[in-house]
Specification:
Blueprint lengths: L15 H7 L2 H4 L3 H17 L5 H19 L12 H13 L12 H37 L4 E6 L2 E7 H26 L1 E2 L15 H7 L4 E2 L3 H6 L2 H27 L7 E2 L18 H24 L14 H24 L1 E2 L1 H9 L5 H12 L3 H18 L8 H7 L13 H7 L8 H17 L1
Parallel strand pairs: 3-4
Antiparallel strand pairs: 1-2, 5-6
Helix pairs in contact: 3-4, 3-6, 3-8, 4-5, 6-7, 6-12, 6-18, 7-10, 7-18, 10-11, 10-12, 11-12, 14-15
The chain binds arginine.
The site of arginine has 10 residues, from helix 6.
């Protein structure tokens, strides 16, 4: 039997393989809410403009709401023969209400329908992700306030660089996540236009009111060009790109958690709730959640790459390739959402070992810059000379196998005769972080202030 929706000129139905490659219902059924919402708005507009009678539209609306209830209750049977969510719903509507169902598709095509559904779905996804990123920011800012003054090593090249505080480190991620949120918000704002009514590609000869449907669906305005409306997926790409950048941030943090939780670093202990054991090694506590956050970032990037590649060769307007926009997008959003929840959970439960962190902060001559700065400030040495003198002092200490603070004044004066014992005051890690009072620096008072600012800000949004 040929397809009832579009099979007028077909003598037979599709080959089984054709049906399999063509059907999207297995994955696009999750658009059912958006599809019904779009259809209700479209039908109401068709009545308001006199294109359909109010009686027909009442019957259509009642039928659509019935289908909504059926799907909600898990009683709806989706059929591959009906290809996608749009035709599954319309096909079922026809069974429920008969002929009037066929009028719903007046002045509409699946091309503008799917573009509308996808925008509605992506818009909700952006809102949900924003909420979850904000929750992770909150978890980080709360910890940052508590540990504003907890000294830990700061690294460059993963080598000891200068002491920082744990709170400062956590707030770095709060800043990154704030930019992630601003990217999500940007994407939302730009995509908030309604393609419904663009029809197949050229618009329609019916006197539709696109402003009315746009408003009913919560869009800022209708899209301005019908060809563009049905053929672009840049709003999905922007979403995936913002999601990828956010996933990259989570992945870097996850990598740090993996390192920090090793016995060798020992900076943090993850809770039992966010660790796993080994089936052979009884001592193990593995940071699987962090590893998976790191690993899953790749999947999200893959969805972005997949969609960019799928779109790049498509002439205007719609091509069926575009049906491939969905699985990667759904997967990426679901994956990021899970990663955000897991990261927030790990952060909330994480126990830093302040003693271990502080001890590690002093390793590797991490206060050498403080010494050089002291030579500049107190002895008025040019920084380059101070750098050189400090380098030689580090060489002496390192040859003895001790820290800078363990050198005697006499040993220091052999390298630089004008050094006084006041220098010892700047060689401690606490002193070092306290001195970093420049705007954005790691001084505990700064960090506390920033953490409070974030907590206040996050309570507002
Ligand atoms: N399932 C299709 C998709 O997701 C809907 C649009 C189909 N349009 C068409 N002209 N075949 O892209």
């Amino acid at each position: 039997m040929s397809n009832r929706m579009w099979g007028g000129r077909f003598a037979t139905g599709p080959d089984a393989i054709m049906e399999e490659i063509n059907a999207s219902i297995d994955f696009d059924q999750r658009l059912w809410r958006q599809d019904i919402r779009g259809s209700l708005a479209h039908a109401a507009m068709l009545a308001a403009t006199g294109i359909l009678t109010q009686d027909d539209v009442d019957v259509i609306a009642k039928g659509l709401k019935g289908i909504e209830a059926e799907i909600e209750a898990g009683r709806f049977t989706f059929s591959r023969a009906l290809e996608d969510i749009h035709m599954n719903i319309e096909g079922n509507l026809r069974e429920q209400i008969g002929l009037a169902a066929g009028r719903l598709h007046t002045a509409r095509s699946r091309n503008d329908q799917v573009a509308t559904d996808m925008r509605l779905w992506v818009r909700d996804a952006l809102d949900q992700l924003d909420e979850q990123v904000a929750d992770l920011q909150l978890a980080l800012a709360e910890k940052a306030e508590i540990y504003a003054g907890a000294v830990m090593p700061g690294f460059t090249h993963l080598q000891s660089a200068q002491p920082v505080t744990f709170g400062h480190h956590l707030l770095a991620y709060v800043e990154m996540l704030a930019r992630d949120r601003s990217r999500l918000k940007d994407a939302r704002e730009r995509m908030n236009e309604c393609p419904l009514g663009a029809a197949a590609l050229a618009g329609t000869s019916f006197p539709i009111d696109r402003h009315m449907t746009a408003e009913a669906l919560g869009f800022a305005r209708p899209t301005a060009n019908s060809l563009d409306s049905v053929s672009d997926r840049d709003f999905v790409l922007e979403t995936l790109s913002a999601a990828s950048i956010c996933a990259m941030h989570l992945s870097r943090f996850a990598e740090e958690i993996v390192l920090w939780a090793t016995p060798q670093f020992g900076f943090v202990k993850l809770s039992d709730k966010f660790s796993t054991g080994s089936s052979i090694m009884p001592q193990k506590r593995n940071p699987d959640a962090a590893e998976l956050v790191r690993g899953k970032a790749g999947r999200i990037f893959g969805s972005l790459q997949g969609l960019l590649t799928m779109m790049k060769g498509l002439p205007l307007t719609y091509s069926k390739d575009m049906q491939e926009d969905k699985e990667g997008t759904f997967d990426a959003v679901q994956t990021l959402s899970l990663c955000l929840a897991a990261t927030a959970g790990m952060v909330r439960d994480m126990q830093p070992d302040l003693k271990v962190m502080k001890k590690a902060a002093g390793l590797g001559y991490a206060t050498a810059t403080d010494l050089a700065d002291w030579l500049v400030r107190v002895l008025k040495m040019p920084f380059r000379d101070a750098h050189h003198v400090t380098g030689r002092l580090v060489g002496v200490a390192s040859a003895k196998g001790v820290g800078l603070e363990k050198l005697s004044l006499a040993e220091m004066q052999e390298v630089e005769p004008t050094i006084t014992d006041a220098v010892f005051a700047v060689l401690g890690v606490e002193q070092s972080v306290k001195s970093r009072v420049s705007y954005g620096g790691t001084a505990p008072a700064n960090v506390k202030r920033q953490a409070k600012r974030w907590l206040k800000q996050l309570a507002k949004d």
